[in-house]
Request: fold
Amino acid sequence: MPKDKKRPPSDSESDSGPEDRGPAKKSKPGAASKSSGAAKQEKSDSQLSGQDPSWHLGRNKHVVVRSFKGQTYIDIREYYVDKNTMDTKPGKKGISLNCEQYQKLKTILDEIDHALP
Reply:
């Protein structure tokens, strides 16, 4: 296999190495990583239904205020509808701002408005 030629030789005969994690990045949501990703997906679905404050911006874009590891984040993200389950799930496109970044964004909103055509 070409992967073996690119990898440096290993002293370990273990099956749990970087080669096991490589294909997971290439797989599409809902393929092989359903069991580990399902818990994250379900949490996001419940956040849209009202556990965390959220606002719909239109065209499948949402703002959600959420806590992660004791920190508060403002998450602006594009969502999609899963074709298999018809659930709304968060996509890859988006940004999470911490409170400091969000406050800075608020201070420059007038400048951004004046820069718009």
